[in-house]
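Changelog excerpt

This revision adds worked examples to the README so contributors can see how folded entries look when concatenated. The first example is reproduced verbatim below.
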Amino acid sequence: MDKKEIAEIFNEIGQLLELKGENPFRIRAYYNAARIVESLQEDLQYLVDEQRLTDIKGIGNDLAAKITEMVTTNRLEFYEQLKASLPKGLLDMLRIPGFGPKRAKIVFDKLKVDSIGKLEAACRAGKVAALDGFGEKSQQKIIEGIELVRKFAARHHIHKVRAAAEGVLEALRALEGVSRASVAGSLRRCRETIGDADFLVSAKPKDAPGIIAAFVATPGVISVSAQGETKASVVLKGGIQADLRVVNDDQFAFALNYFTGSKEHNIAMRARALRLKNLSLNEYGFSPAAEKEKPSLRDAEGRGRQSAKELGSSIKCKTEQDLYAALDLDYIEPELREDMGEIEAAEKGLLPKLIEKENLRGAFHVHSTWSDGIETIEAMAQAALDLGLEYIGIADHSKGQRQANGLDEKRLRQQAEEIRRLNSKQDFRIFFGSEVDILPDGSLDFDDDTLAVCDFIIAAVHTSFNLPAEQQTARICKALAHPQVTMLAHPTGRLLLEREGYAVNMSDVIEAAARYGKIIELNAHPYRLDMDWRLWKRAKELGVKCAINPDAHNIDDYQSLALGVGIARKGWLTKADVVNCLPLKQVEKMLLRS
């Protein structure tokens, strides 16, 4: 665990003890410990290794033992037992603005309210207002606070956070005194959903307060959660939490690496630094590890060890490339930093050259007004051409999707004629396909003669999501065995932050795609991003090709291709792994073979 995680746990322990009505002095000790740990400038691992935690004012033997347990085991048994002793919903209630542990304890003791839902019901019934110390105004504020929690506390789709972050980053880069600026965190790693947006800036210490002041006043900031001289937290429009750190330029590469994460990648990097170089690595740089305090580290007045932040790194690194090189590693792209073999591959020189958006030559799975799209085929083709693409694949819905104006056999053949006409009058190529429903028994929505009219077939599950996993898996694998199926669309049917994917054994599906030579779609729509990035490495090993498809229902949906590329990069995919990186002539040959 890092400092932030440990500080959060100490804060939660303080809250939990308040909810239990424990001794105020004990409660305060945990809140103080949280602040102390958060503000530490020395590496926690270093302090644990040297058994110097109790040298820190405010950290006694008991707290030092708990910190040591968290650093060494990644858990704290006392914390887990304390959480288990109270209803989980009580802690959730503390997320309501202005609703602290004391108030939560009152409503729990008097009304047996132990969740946000029950609290809202009690407020709307007027029960909370009747309690001593509350009243109508307090009750209304609680209701408003619950609404804010529900509106702002959830994770966000990556495209929304990315859009909000772009403006903030542009504003930061334009500020006087800013040397370098970047996003960090899960946004930089291109996770499919984002909890908050992290920003990092390098500047001289004298400029840091002004940069922080400008950040909290940035257009789009709706509230300020915290503000100090070198860091601040705000809420952006849309309820997106955003955090900024300001460091000096010598620390920028280390801080960018640290705050980009992931936590697991950072742990592996720290372990490597310790093992290979006997160095401690943190957000400030490298420093000697497991070494007793030296006189040279004292200041002129002998006041004790200076922090790693004050001393500077023992190995200077201007960029992240320098940092990885210092640990005898090839540079690891942010998207890969999930501790899924990237460090081992970097050590052996086996990291792939990841796909880039500029590699895309076309896009399949494009809808039109023939089914549920809002643009004509010609307009979708022109928009793709304007983006520099060479081809698209129109794949409107089959007849089973009546609510999406799915095409029956007659309309499908009429659409084929229109596409032939459009192809005869322009150099840009429109491939003719269909997004065909996989029926519950694994058969397809069109017969073989109708399927043969198309250049390609995208098979997709759109109904019967609740089938048992074994049956759902067999259904999809049977469809993949069909000789006229080209690719599988949105393999798990998930809708991020709305709906979990259906029960399916994706390992079997990937193996079936490999066996039958089928393509699996990476549906780039920000609400899907399906197939999940964690599965692509295995698919790649089996030789399964990917199609990064926008599932475009309008022209703007082409922009989601960039998100799809980000997820493909997380899945270790290269240009050679993605069929729509192929030039037109090669795609023609590929579809003829299929």
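The second example, added in the same revision:
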Amino acid sequence: MAFSRRDFLKYAAMSAGGTMLAESSFFSARARERKEGGKVRYVPTTCEMCFWKCGVIAKVVDGKVVKLEGNPLHPQSRGRLCGRGQGGIGLLYDRDRLKVPMIRTGPRGENRYRQASWDEALDFVAGKLKEIAAKHGPEAVALFAHGSPGTYFNNLVRAMGSGNVAYPSFSQCLGAREVAWELTFGQGPNSTCERVDLANSRVIVLFGTHLGENMHNSQTQEFAEAVGRGAKIICVDPRYSTAASKASMWLPIRPGTDLALLLTWINIIIKEGWYDREYVEKYTTGFEELKEAVARYTPEWAAQETDLPMRDIIEAVRELGRYAPNVILHPGRHFAWHGNDVQRGRAMAIINALLGTWGRPGGIWLPPKVNLPAFSETPEHPEANNDPVVFGDYPFAGGEGLTQLLRETTITGDPYPIKAWFVAGTNLMKTLPKPELTRKAIDNLDLLVVVDVMPTDTVMLADVILPEATYLERHDGLFTITTREAGVAIRQPAIEPLYQSRPAWWIGSELCKRMGLGQYAVKDSWEARMRRQAKKWGIDYDELADTGYISLPGSATPYITADNQPVFNTPSKKIELVSSELEEEDFDPVPRYEPVEQPKRGEYRLLYGRSPVHTFTRTVNNQWLWELKKENEVWLNADEARRLGVRNGEIIRLENQDRVMSEPVRVRVTERIRRDCIFMIHGFGQDSPVMTRAYNRGADDQNLITRYKVDPICGSTGMRVNFVKIVKEA
């Protein structure tokens, strides 16, 4: 089914006016269908074009999805969808999507496969897994996963007796931030949707957080509302991002010196008395030790270190102080930068604590109360015979595991061999730093099984490819949504799976049966399981399927009151300005600044981010979104371009510090970036020729990330430590 760019823009414009939907006849899918005479179907479900889990209403005509709308009842969408959400139809009907199970017939990487039936493919995988487990032990089987599909293969791998499960979202994205806030407040700011009260904030500070480019739907809506009513925006970023264009202050900081600025702000807040004395006394511990530790971080010193004017350093933090506690220093996302990331996150959390933002309007709202009973239909997984390798010697590595440790063990075989990988919903070749090591690890495997929708670079290295149904073709669970309130959302199919694709729950369940682990398989269907879960939760499943979202009454308690006090799950049961847990592990209990390596003259720090119409490699082949953004460019400072004799739109290459060369890529000459940095959108430069739109479009920044710094506290991989030179094409 083909859709033109004109269709896409028309539907996107209709979605942009999503408030109309809330006032329209949408009370339920069934009511809307009756109003239109039963000629169409409307199916509420949950988007998976990114992790935000927006509520979607799919319009189905003659068995085809023809339109997607934001669900006005769902707090993550509020009747609107972003461009990527609108692109869900492009994923569903992508001509290049995986259609049938395939088994590799030639050397790895040569794209030689034969079609197989599901029975043959699943029997082949089960047989190889049994063989590997018998020879090397069950811990020789590992899983890399992202998103909903990982749930079902996590169940399989753990049922076999392996704990070697890792999610790139911890190592390469949010792990350091979550650990930092847990060490400070006893909990994170919410890994899916940060509890930032932007709608009521008077000052919003963003450290490299690209609202308007990452397009996290409800948060972007609130950011726009805040800008519209005059909230002050302070952007600390070496690049003049979309968010910076809305700011009252842009601080183009020298990359790697964010912690210097933060510690200086803490010093100024304390020295000038901007902190909330009553709040600090009641809810925090360690104030005097913090005060002493940060006294040496002066504005004069910070100006030299950060390359920012001293007056801007001082004025920015005073703006926070003037309007506190109705302010927020945003916790940020994609937090793995320079290897000192937990302590950077700690400093950000400490500032929020000093200003009393936790549990205050315009700051960070308190988590809603959720009292849904646990639900499971499978026995507990067996204890692994050998300890998993995914936590290493990092005392605060999260339960999501460390991807680079799985890769390292696969290469070395130490402390034991890992010979099989399941990869579900993640493109490791474009996700992990130092991709040459990822390829080396894959070549050491006896079995690589990839479950995905699209033929990505990682998929086309697999021994067995299992085509997954898209989110518009499957049941996938009841999602607990926690914003200011708590509620339950549903993912259900708008149409039956196309081709021979299958839902991940079915694939995982069938493998359990073939592995002799039938007790871990789904009893009947995932929908039937969801109905039993809804019954246990006291939710009307048919009503949920009809509306897409049901709120939990009485769950919203966003702010501190006399009857609603915050709970801090730290050892002291208070906000720890000085971390007792870090001190016990011989780490600095108060963040301490240490300089990071800076580029030499003629070199540029490699920065990367995303486009508002793409979710990295997940969407670059999507017809609708590809037409809007077909390739990336290299942002280069205009003064540097003149010095190098490079013109806007010229084709160049980048060469990193390890002599790795990029693909040819266009230059975008701009004043909107520091002279010592370049910037690229991540996800382009696909090597898989069967991604016919994305193949060889733009340049792959991941190939240039041949170095990374590991955070000693949590083990996350800081990837903004690579430097490049500009090489002019002949």
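Reviewer comment on example two: The CA atoms of residues 10 and 597 lie 48 Å apart. The chain is about 30% helix and 15% strand.
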